[in-house]
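check these tokens.
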Amino acid sequence: MDKRLMMDRSIHIITEYYKNNLGPFFDGMDEDVLWIGPVMGQWLRGKEAMLKAWEAEKHDLTFSLRNISATHIPLGSAACAVVLRYEVYTHYPSGVTHLHNQRLHYTWREKRTAREDGGTEKRQLISVMHISNAEQMDERDAIYPVHYENVTAHKYAEYSSGKLARVRVQATDGSLHILLSTSILYIESSNRARQCEVRTKDGGILTSATLSDFEAAYPESFMRAHSGYLINPMYVRTVRRFQCLMENGVVIPIPEKKYTKFKKALSDWADKWD
């Protein structure tokens, strides 16, 4: 089973799911799928049982998804697992927003299925979908946390992805990360420019992409401060002679010949937000 294809498909399914588009979600399920939900006691066996449960569910919730990381685990020539980590914001009609860090485990298997024309075809289908960090929920809820706002009353301002770039990072360990640009502090060239480290608030991700790759793909999100660094201007604390101090305390050098140009570019960027 193609590693990149299965990670991309896993991400696509959950991304569409949180847009309340359930087509790819159910299309990927095996008839005998086991679904273990994010709430204690949510356990359904079979695609038919899942369809009935979702058809009976009524809600007015919307969701925002961000910062997805995918890890692929081969299980032979005809099966694999894909584990996703991501942040999901549940928005209630009252204005309350609940943030939850999710872990989602797919077990995919390839099987031959019947076509409408009487023939057969090989398809990759989900045999197990397990959301592993189970939590308590209001006893009136079945699938979605419709009443959960009565339990938690937190509000989060930083949830909307809006027009922010979603940055795709293929790590050297084979994992795939889809990050909002706002979660990246800077990108640093390493290993004689053959690799880069994407530095986020939570750590670093090593990738074989180059700084030029990121600069070309996301020109609105990052700014070249040095031949070895792209910075996210959102996280610049101060700029003084020939160096840039980031919010995490890292000092990034600025070449003397590019110092004036860099300061102007940073000022122009700031003016867009005024």
Remarks:
- The mean pLDDT is 86.
- The chain has five helices and 16 strands.
- The longest strand covers residues 97-114.
- The first helix runs from residue 3 to 17.
